[in-house]
Each structure stands twice: as structure tokens, then as C-alpha cells.
């Protein structure tokens, strides 16, 4: 019994000691709700692609300066970093919002429908906040306003990371969170928090998961070179088409026979295959490209090793030459287990226990993972679907009908602010 009682007392002692500023946060967050909505609508109407978030950055920087927050601009091209020093010494807590939009043409009929277009990779396209990063920026601008209103009582420093280019850019090797980390933004940080709006999760809900939560994403490129032959006499050549089909089927055994599926899923998808020109010619080359999704460094290493073995050994058995490239893009988003369990009471306090969902792993990826590789971090999902909506009929992220209900923004402002004051431990 003693063993049981002691941890319970410790847990309640910790959460009780951190609650002092929560009512003030709630009050201020409610007061600024209409401002947050206004900022978000303005950002939604004027979306900007990765590394081109000039108007967005200016809006953020102006707002932070108006609150007396120390601002650095042009971080990782178009990012903005704000420093809010509390009245008392303590840890540095970073809050992150990504700023970029996507090359998608909006189909929603909204008064604040996107008006922007751009050239993306040589193509004219509409630009849309089709992943909801406009809501992240507005929510973090709101949290900055809430936290700066109680600056004297904060025990530590808040670092606001407004990050460009989360969706990646085609014309730079390093961008977004990875570049911010390379520029040193995480050096003085003790913990980092972020959220993502979710178009298919009801307003009022928060989702989270401990450990690997979102996948690592890696690109796969395979070029097989055989020996061209007449289609009527395949024995005189080396057929890269047959070999490529063996490889595609072989890759699927990694997931069914090598990955421990009771722990985490993984995905290997061949998304394109090109080879050949007509019925009766066995071509010289076949090219395949695909995507790999894994959870955690250990699983990623295993899957990469098996891909390499299967591809090279099947090619060798067919007498074909192979060029295999695996390009690492974003690592897995791993929520630090100790930090996550420490912050669970914060999630419950912000949303109510019945609204906190323990999520299954998500095979999408997020470059928030680069921040988490430097310091412990927690990344949560925030509901953005109207109450009573059907997630199966609600447009997903990155689509022209993507839509976010504004009713969840205040919860976003509150939970980001709670993360700061709870982590700092206001009554120590
Ligand atoms: Zn996205
Ligand atoms: Zn996103």
C-alpha cells in the first residue's frame, strides 16, 4: 500500500502546485478570442508558401513587439523568434507554430477565402492554408498576448518559435525546423511544445501519444538496369520489369515478416514505376520511387537495412544492376515519455478528462521532430472539426475543401499557455 500512496501524493502535489495562473490564463484567453479569430482569417486570406512567409512574418513580429517581446526576424529565412523574459528566474520553455501554406486552390466559399496565387515548381497554382498553419500562428500570437500579460509572475523565459516551411521546399536542402535548429534556436531551451489543428477531430478535443507519435518520412528511389531484348526472346536479355515486380513484392515482406507490428506500424509504398515503351521490347531500365514511414530510430534502421538487402539481393539474383537511394526527410515525431507523463494533468486541466484522447500512431510526418531531437518535446493534436461532424465526411488536410471550425482556438491558446506555466512550476 505504501508504494501506491507515495506516487499518488507526489503526482497530486505537482499538479496542485502549478495551477495558480490558470484562472488568469482562462480569463485573458476568453477576452482575446475574437482577436485570434480575426488574425487567423487575415492569415487564411493571405497564405504564403514555405520560405516566402514575408507578410505573415511581419504580422507576427509587429504583434510580438507591441507586447514588449524581444524579436528576431529572418530566422531560417522567414522565421520569427520571440523572447519573453519572466519576472523570476527559471527554465526556458519554447512554443512552436509553423507558418507556411500549400500549393492548393481553395474551394471553400468563405468571406476570408484565400486570394493568393503563386508559381510552385514551375506551375501556376492557388495557395491555401490547407493544413491549418494559419490557426497555429494565430493561436501562438494569442498565447504570446496571454503570457505577456502575466510576465512578472512567470518563473522563466518563454521562447516563441514561428517556423517557416514545415511542408518542405523543393529548392533547398535544408529548411524549416531543421534549419532553425542548425541556426541554434534550441540551445538555451529546456522543453518545447507544439500543436497541430486536426480537421477530422471535434472542437474541444485534444489528442496526444507518448513516444513515437508521427512517422519518419524517407524517400525511396530504385533504378534497375538490365539488358534490353526483343520481347519474344527474353532469354537473350536481363528483364528489369520482372525484377522490379519481385522487388515490389519483396518489400512488402518487411512489414509482414520483419517489423514487430505489436509495437508500431510501418509503411513502404512504391508510388511510381516507369519502364518500357512498347509491347515487344524488354527495356533496359526501370525506375521506381516510393515513400517509407517508420516510428523511432530503431525501427527506421531496421526497415532501411531490410530494404537495402532485399533490393540488392533480388537485383543480383537477376543479374541486374541496381542503384538504390534512401533519402531521409523528417525523423519520427517522438514525444518524450517523461515530459508527456508530467504534462498529462495539464492536458486534462485544459480540455477536461473526457476530451483528452490517447491517439494511435499517425503515419503522416512533422518537422517538429527536429526540435524534439534537441530537447524534450511534446506535440499534440487540437480538434478543428465542428461539433457533431462526421470525420469520414470531413475533408482531410492538404485538400481544397479543408475547413477548420474556429471554436477550438481558445482551447489552443489555453493549453499552450498552461504548458508554459505548468512546466515552470509556478509555486516552487
Ligand atoms: Zn501539412
Ligand atoms: Zn501541417
Automatic annotation (TrEMBL):
The keyword Repeat does not apply. Pfam families: M20_dimer (PF07687), Peptidase_M20 (PF01546). One of its GO terms (molecular function) is metal ion binding. InterPro entries: Amidohydrolase, Bact_exopeptidase_dim_dom, Peptidase_M20, Peptidase_M20_dimer. Its cofactor is Mn(2+). Keywords: Hydrolase, Manganese, Metal-binding. The keyword NADP does not apply. Mn(2+) binds at residues 131, 133, 167, 196, 398. The Mn(2+) ion enhances activity. Residues 220-316 form the Peptidase M20 dimerisation domain. GO terms for biological process: diaminopimelate biosynthetic process. It comes from the Bacteria. NCBIfam families: amidohydrolases. PANTHER family: METALLOPEPTIDASE, PUTATIVE (AFU_ORTHOLOGUE AFUA_6G09600)-RELATED, PEPTIDASE M20 FAMILY MEMBER. This is Amidohydrolase. The lineage of its organism: Bacteria, Pseudomonadati, Bacteroidota, Cytophagia, Cytophagales.
Amino acid at each position: 500500500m505504501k508504494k501506491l500512496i507515495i506516487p499518488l501524493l507526489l503526482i497530486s502535489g505537482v499538479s496542485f502546485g502549478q495551477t495558480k495562473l490558470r484562472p488568469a490564463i482562462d480569463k485573458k484567453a476568453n477576452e482575446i478570442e475574437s482577436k485570434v479569430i480575426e488574425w487567423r482569417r487575415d492569415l487564411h486570406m493571405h497564405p504564403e508558401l514555405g520560405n516566402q512567409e514575408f507578410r505573415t512574418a511581419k504580422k507576427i513580429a509587429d504583434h510580438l513587439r507591441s507586447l514588449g517581446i524581444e524579436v528576431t526576424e529572418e530566422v531560417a529565412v522567414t522565421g520569427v523568434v520571440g523572447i519573453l523574459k519572466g519576472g523570476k528566474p527559471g527554465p526556458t520553455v519554447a512554443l512552436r507554430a509553423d507558418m507556411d501554406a500549400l500549393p492548393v486552390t481553395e474551394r471553400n466559399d468563405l468571406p476570408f477565402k484565400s486570394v493568393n496565387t503563386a508559381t510552385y515548381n514551375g506551375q501556376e497554382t492557388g495557395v491555401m492554408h490547407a493544413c491549418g498553419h494559419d490557426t497555429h500562428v494565430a493561436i501562438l500570437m494569442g498565447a504570446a498576448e496571454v503570457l505577456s500579460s502575466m510576465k512578472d509572475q512567470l518563473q522563466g523565459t518563454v521562447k516563441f518559435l514561428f517556423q517557416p516551411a514545415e511542408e518542405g521546399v523543393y529548392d533547398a536542402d535544408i529548411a524549416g525546423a531543421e534549419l532553425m535548429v542548425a541556426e541554434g534556436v534550441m540551445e538555451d531551451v529546456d522543453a518545447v511544445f507544439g500543436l497541430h489543428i486536426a480537421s477530422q477531430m471535434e472542437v474541444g478535443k485534444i489528442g496526444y501519444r507518448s513516444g513515437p507519435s508521427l512517422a519518419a518520412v524517407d524517400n525511396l528511389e530504385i533504378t534497375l538496369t538490365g539488358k534490353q531484348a526483343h520481347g519474344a526472346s527474353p532469354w537473350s536479355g536481363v528483364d528489369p520489369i520482372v525484377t522490379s515486380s519481385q522487388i515490389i513484392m519483396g518489400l512488402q515482406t518487411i512489414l509482414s515478416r520483419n517489423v514487430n507490428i505489436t509495437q508500431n506500424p510501418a509503411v513502404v509504398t512504391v508510388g511510381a514505376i516507369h519502364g518500357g515503351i512498347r509491347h515487344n521490347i524488354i527495356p533496359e531500365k526501370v525506375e521506381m520511387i516510393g515513400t517509407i514511414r517508420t516510428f523511432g530510430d530503431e525501427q527506421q534502421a531496421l526497415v532501411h537495412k531490410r530494404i537495402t538487402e532485399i533490393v540488392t539481393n533480388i537485383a543480383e539474383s537477376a543479374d541486374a544492376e541496381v542503384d538504390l537511394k534512401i533519402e531521409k526527410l523528417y525523423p519520427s515525431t517522438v514525444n518524450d515519455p517523461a515530459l508527456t507523463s508530467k504534462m498529462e494533468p495539464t492536458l486534462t486541466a485544459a480540455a477536461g478528462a473526457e476530451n483528452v484522447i490517447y491517439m494511435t500512431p499517425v503515419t503522416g510526418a512533422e518537422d517538429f521532430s527536429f526540435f524534439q531531437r534537441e530537447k524534450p518535446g511534446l506535440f499534440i493534436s487540437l480538434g478543428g472539426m465542428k461539433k457533431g461532424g462526421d470525420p469520414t465526411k470531413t475533408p482531410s488536410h492538404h485538400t481544397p475543401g479543408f475547413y477548420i471550425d474556429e471554436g477550438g482556438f481558445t482551447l489552443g491558446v489555453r493549453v499552450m499557455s498552461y504548458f508554459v506555466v505548468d512546466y515552470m512550476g509556478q509555486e516552487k
